[in-house]
Write a structure and sequence with these properties.
It is built from 17 helices and ten strands. It is α+β, with helices and mostly antiparallel strands. The chain has three domains: 149 residues, Orthogonal Bundle (Arc Repressor Mutant, subunit A), CATH 1.10.10; 70 residues, no CATH class; 97 residues, no CATH class. The radius of gyration is 24 Å and the shape is globular.
């Protein structure tokens, strides 16, 4: 599956991860966030599960690196006691105790996501017509658990993680998201340009709805994206950036029709030193239709998952065939199915005053009830 929705705040805050100097830590942190977006499902208690081996395979990361000891873990940096004391206490109590130092590259990344705040701007108005703007922060991962499971008659220990995402992160995956391409992200990660890819997608999707098709950067911001020295002569900075721009134009011509990078003259400048990107304008009605289709897709995906959870929480371990029979039978659990549709719709769709969600739910399940095969059922959720 190439389509990937991520929280737009990741793109807005992507340079925040550059504060962690080693590239490997940056890669694992961002890969975790992408992986959460790609495969996030929760158990009955609201926890997601991450198998390090499956994570490494999906995100094209060497699995041995994940378990390698980090040279300067964030937990030790944050502690008011020395690393020597922390490790001494861990040795006394054991690695499988609450005194464990989260010092592998993967554990360190989870620790950072559990302690690093991101920021979200907002605006609104009160009933007495006061306008206001604000800023709030949220932690991406609210809780992390490290689990140890004995295998092979107790000779080996399997490690996996359970995590609980912040409600804001979960909500943004439904409503404040960025549409990206998973394979493109992996591709750009190979040459260290994945941050710029997320940023370009965010700029394009944010401005096209406003019927704006040009965006300018400060030169120093792009130098930071690509780790280009600000001590280089500007002609060499431009040369390196133009090489990168050319690659992005070729790779994103289908995702961003008409994408083109260039340089403008700034105020009082003799030469063009202000980088910009442009793209083809799209009719506003077409953009709104695209956005409606995306929201519809998000809604149907969550509806399918919620109906599945409803059934299996009631019935326990039963087969997929039995679930399908239950799903298309409008004489069983009708009220519960409709209530699930209404709650899922309210969370994922814009609800207008004249929208009768209950009628939409009834129509949907009548349509499902007429299905004669699993393929027809599948089409109802597409």
């Amino acid at each position: 599956m190439d389509k990937l929705r991520i929280d737009k705040n990741i793109a807005y805050n992507v340079l925040e991860f550059h504060k962690y100097e080693d590239r490997q830590t940056q890669i694992i942190i961002k890969s975790l966030l992408i992986y959460f977006s790609y495969s996030y499902q929760v158990d009955l208690f609201g926890y997601g599960v991450l198998d390090p081996h499956a994570f490494a395979k999906k995100m094209k990361i060497d699995k041995d690196t994940l378990f390698k000891k980090h040279p300067n873990p964030k937990q030790i940096q944050d502690s008011n006691v020395s690393a020597e004391e922390l490790y001494k206490k861990e040795e006394q109590e054991g690695r499988f105790s609450t005194y464990r130092v989260w010092d592998s590259y993967l554990e360190n990344a989870f620790y950072i996501l559990n302690t690093l705040p991101l920021y979200e701007n907002f605006k609104g108005s009160t009933l007495d017509n006061h306008q206001y703007i604000g800023i709030k922060n949220f932690i991406l991962v609210r809780e992390v658990q490290l689990h140890f499971q004995k295998t092979n008659l107790g000779r080996n220990t399997k490690i996996f993680f359970k995590y609980k995402l912040d409600e804001t992160f979960e909500r943004n995956l439904r409503k404040f998201f960025l549409q990206t391409n998973f394979q493109k992200y992996i591709q750009f990660k190979k040459n260290k340009t994945e941050d710029f890819y997320l940023t370009i997608c965010n700029i394009y999707q944010t401005y096209r709805i406003k019927q704006i098709n040009k965006f300018r950067w400060k030169l120093e911001d792009l130098l930071q994206f690509f780790n280009i020295s600000n001590k280089l002569e500007i002609k060499y900075q431009k040369r390196r950036l133009n090489t990168i721009f050319k690659k992005f134009e070729g790779e994103l011509e289908k995702e961003i029709p008409g994408i083109k990078f260039g340089w403008d003259k700034g105020e009082g400048q003799r030469w063009a030193y202000v980088p910009y990107v442009t793209w083809n304008l799209i009719d506003i009605s077409e953009i709104k239709e695209i956005n409606r289709n995306v929201l519809r897709e998000v809604f149907l995906k969550h509806l399918r998952k919620n109906l599945k959870d409803l059934y299996f929480n009631q019935q326990g371990n039963t087969t997929q065939v039995e679930f399908l029979h239950w799903l298309i039978n409008n004489k069983i659990d009708t009220d519960l199915k409709i209530a699930t549709y209404i709650s899922t719709y309210s969370l994922n769709q814009k609800v207008h005053k004249n929208t009768n969600i209950e009628n939409l739910a009834k129509q949907f399940f009548v349509k499902l009830g007429a299905c004669k095969s699993s393929e027809e059922v599948k089409k109802c959720f597409e």
